[in-house]
Amino acid sequence: MDYEKTNSVTLSGTISQKPVFSHQLLGGEAFYDFYLDVARLSGAVDSIPVTISQRLLKSSGIKFEVGTGVSISGEFRSHNLEQEGKSKLLLSVLCKEVAEKAGEDENCIELTGFICKPPIFRETPFKRQINDILLAVNRPVFKRSDYIPVIAWGRNALYAKNFRVGDMVKIKGRIQSRKFNKVIDGETIEKTAYEVSVQDILQHEEKLDTHISFEEKEMSM
CA separation (Å) from 117 to 136, 158, 177? Predict the structure, then answer.
């Protein structure tokens, strides 16, 4: 399976936080994180974390200042950060191409992956149907997977209700940020979750039963 066709992100928006150093590879290449604000049609704004290499920062010719409009393409990546015996799932868009923004805000993602936890279907008090899915998107070159939280609504939630672990699905949607409050040691702290909001979802016949390595742990946002 061609990984570039299974994990594709296109974003256009406005930089809301200048790049700050994130990490450095063993070979010496440095990476930086910044936030891109992307407006929805409703007027709400998703603030999306983006990771970019120092080489791309320098070669782009763009000044990565707050308020600068950029368009990027890349992949939605995840990794686990161990903190105090808990595993925190961190998500960001790995930027592979960047250019100055030329049009309206855009937020598109396409994923093809495998269900790696039983979907959680529920209804809100207002009878709105929701389905939470965790999707494993393989990186064949690196022999690992990115674990992407996905949320489906309405008819898409119903369609995904009977999905099973190992089922292969294709998803189109957008990346959204969602703020929530969490009580830690008696103190209420505002946190942000990132997930893919589904616009279209399709189940494939192919299944993967033996290659999903996700180990369920207590996740802390």
Answer: 9, 17, 22
Tens of pLDDT, residue by residue over 31-61, are: 999 999 999 989 899 999 999 999 999 999 9
Tell me the pTM.
0.86
Q: In angstroms, what is the C-alpha Rg of the chain?
A: 18
Phi, psi dihedral angles at 194 (to 5 degrees): -120, 140
Measured from the Cβ of residue 62, the count of other Cβ atoms closer than 10 Å reads 17
Ordered DSSP codes for the chain: --HHHHEEEEEEEEEEEEEEEEEE-TTS-EEEEEEEEEE-TTS-EEEEEEEEEHHHHHHT-----TT-EEEEEEEEEEEEEEETTEEEEEEEEEEEEEEE--SS-EEEEEEEEEE-S--EEEE-TT--EEEEEEEEEEETTTTEEEEEEEEEEHHHHHHGGG--TTEEEEEEEEEEEEEEEEEETTEEEEEEEEEEEEEEEEEEEEE-SSS-------B--
Phi then psi for residue 164, to 5 deg, are -120, 155
Cα 91 to Cα 146: distance, rounded to the nearest angstrom: 9
CA-wise closest residue to 75 among 142, 152, 30: 142
